[in-house]
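User: Before I run my own analysis I want an independent prediction to cross-check against. Here's the chain; please return only the structure tokens and, at the end, one sentence I can use as a sanity check.
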Amino acid sequence: MAAPAPVGTSAPTPVASPPAATVAAPPATVPSPAATARAGAATHTVRFGETLWSIAQDQLGRGASAAEIERMVARLWRLNGAVIGTGDPSVIYPGQRLRLR
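Assistant: Structure tokens:
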């Protein structure tokens, strides 16, 4: 059995956690996802940093509402689920060729 702590002692002082790591911005040479999916194109090859959301937004234009973009994302997923192959519309990879229409 361990001996009880002496009367009048305080609990150990907690150790401070290290500062959270910061994430650096991507290099300026990475193409902006907004500039990659051409409106009106029949297919699109996914580039680094793109998402179905950014591709849908490019297809619809910057004035599209969130609801319109959401519907387009669902449509892109229906057209390309087998090509994407992840079972998750939020996971796409550079180099995948997606149908837009």
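Sanity check: The helical segments are 52-60, 66-84.
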